[in-house]
Queue: 2 jobs
Job 1
Amino acid sequence: MSIADNIEHIRTTLPLGVELIAVSKFQPITSLEQAYNTGQRLFGESRPQELASKWEALPRDIRWHMIGHLQTNKVRLIAPFVAMIESVDSLRLAQTINQEAERIGRVIDILLELHVAQEESKFGWNPVELEKIISSGIFDTMANIRIRGLMGMATFTDDKSIINSEFAQLRTTFDHIKQQYMPHIDVLSMGMSADYREAILHGSTAVRIGSTIFGVR
Ligand SMILES: *Cc1c(COP(=O)(O)O)cnc(C)c1O
């Protein structure tokens, strides 16, 4: 199956209102071009340097999402062009993005990254911490970021009951934050190659799919 076939196939399985983020990290430009030629205009990358060089090399109508852990000293590399930073996992990072966006005269869309998986290594807030920080009102003072919603990952496991309960937790947290604090949020980014079908059943609005499109990295 070609990259084009893979993308077309995934698209036929996505309900209306669920966006496909083609996760192109570690893939060569030629592979991204093949995806682009099917009409794909939304790509996700996990490293700022790689994101910046792919932005340079490819057409300007692509929307680029940063989906990997971002160090504050790398924000400058991507701030001028990034469409969304999905992996905002600390207050310091949110403040840095806000400052940099203000400096260059942009408002940058972000997602707050929630940690619900069992792996120690994954970044993000737990639901209690997240509610605490949102209810403090501190994000309201940051005029150059726009919080669009939440991003999260499930544990990497074959056990569907774990995956389902973690996506349910992400969805419950999203609904609660939306109801109590941020009625405007509209993005719940969850689901990868192995688990995007489950994520969609739990209300994902954006799936981040890499290996099922491009093959193994
Ligand atoms: C790599 C990555 C993906 C895509 O993973 P696949 O299993 O290749 O679909 C999704 N989200 C994040 C945050 C990633 O780093």
Job 2
Amino acid sequence: MDSAAERLDIVRTTIARAERIWNRAAGSVTLVAVSKTVPADGIRPVLEAGQRVFGENRVQEAKAKWPGLREDFPDLRLHLIGPLQTNKVREAVELFDVIETVDRDRLAGVLAEEMAKRGRTPGLYVQVNTGEEPQKAGIAPKEAAAFVARCREVHGLAITGLMCIPPAEDLPGPHFALLAKIAGDCGLSTLSMGMSADYEIAIQHGATHVRVGSAIFGARHYPAPEAGPA
Ligand SMILES: *Cc1c(COP(=O)(O)O)cnc(C)c1O
């Protein structure tokens, strides 16, 4: 079986090829390696292969794994890609360099408070529920522009991007195109979209960040709830 480092190499090559095919500048797409459910020992070889940007979907799991890895790789960057409960915001602000899942006013308010208190300013993206799935986190597409404006004006948060997770049963292209359209309307240039099965399509539609897990680390051994609390 291939190693995670070998699969990482394949993903990198695929991203570079998609950048060429879709006339994207070389290096304009950042790979976020999604390491949820992977123990620290499984992440280390990918760090040693030079990967520095990682995604986790649960605050508690990240807290157990990443402080130790950060000691050895201080330049790594950690993204929160799972839903964030307000009672975990303090820990999230301390642990993560980017929080991709801002999706409601109460969360925005608590984030602003904790960031001011701790003097930390993680990057912030708004999650958009492009498929309008009731069980999925994210702001509805129609409300996204007004929510981004409230984050900025009411909560003083510097939102820099948008993130989406299309419904598993849909073709992803239209969802990626919708996210890109909303980002354009809001004057945002960062687009986190695309996973193992569809990151090349996301790059076609302008993704600046692709979140790739199983194509690097292999099939996950136990289910990581995507809609559960972070
Ligand atoms: C798990 C997860 C991914 C990665 O999924 P793969 O299909 O393993 O690449 C990307 N984004 C989010 C939000 C996830 O929860």
